[in-house]
Automatic annotation (TrEMBL):
InterPro entries: Gram-neg_bact_OMP, Gram_neg_porin_domain, Porin_dom_sf, Porin_Gram-ve, Porin_Neis. Residues 8-328 form the Porin domain. One of its GO terms (molecular function) is porin activity. GO terms for biological process: monoatomic ion transmembrane transport. Residues 1-20 form the signal peptide. It is a multi-pass membrane protein. This is Outer membrane protein (Porin). Homotrimer.
Amino acid sequence: MKKSLLCAAMLAAASSVAHAQSSVTLYGIIDAGVSYLSNVGGHSQFMASDGSIQSNRWGFLGKEDLGGGLSAIFVLENGFNLNSGSLFQSDVIFNRQAWVGLASTRYGRVTLGKQYDFFWDNLTQFAMGQYAGQYSWHPGDFDHLAGTLHINNAARYVSPTIAGVTVGGLYAFPSQATSGGTGRIIAFGLRYDNGPLKIGAAYTDIHDMGVNGPVQAGTTFFPNLPPTPQLANGVTNFGAGASYQIGRSLTRLLFTSTHFRIRNDNGSLNTYEANEVFSLTPATTLMAGYWYSKLGSQHWQNVTALADYALSKRTDVYATATYLRASGGAAPVFLGIGGSNAFVDGVYVGGGGASSVAVRIGMRQKF
């Protein structure tokens, strides 16, 4: 009897250990609210919008301990529209991420599948959009800080962190199904994290990328291009950012440069950003910042403020206000809102003026 009890106890313990070494976690973000925009194609508009401060998503995170510091890992992540219940990308269930790989405490990790570049990993942490979301991202999110570039057929390596430094590289094989374009993609990243100081850098080069300037950012890119979607021969991104924490105040600086090669034209969209995050109380976060973007004669300026109050560790309510001004031929178009095709020789001639204001209140729950 004692032997039977001992055997049962040992089996139970072994089962518990095996279960602890392998896990699959369900996670997600749900964001909903109401937005007011003063200038959408020349008219003001109230809208019930979702996924504005953070895109709605749910996913599975899996890990299996293989022993010796080696683990098998995977992520399957879906983006969806809360107000309609539809997939963010039609007919693609895991449209944000879908990858599997091996992680070693000694050698780093290798993953294969649909993945992000290193702007998402290393530079989004310095952007206003990390807190305020949709209306504070840079023009068109051509620098991928909002995570709109989902790279298919990608092989990705990230090193272990040594003395606060982490490096990585990505190669995506050419495919007609590649979200960012049809050609190959190469990306590199570097991150440094040491106490109050954080530094990040990223580089991405994309061949044959589809872009829609008027809808994404209120621009035709170059004066001789029509206000229609274009296939860029190449889009090359470079960015660097840093932050420093002093008490309850976090100061962040960011620079990104996106170089477009479209037909016989080429030019760079450069963005300079500074913002401040302040923890007023353990539950209350304030943020304010400014960025300036330039592409040829076109200019964009964005000023954003946010107040966020945490009702719990999982649920918060927030309010944001953003002022966007465009000049030099560009239109004041917020990411995801769309733009007018009223351009003549690359100059915006639509109504509504050169600026737009976006105000939003909402709530978010994480699980």
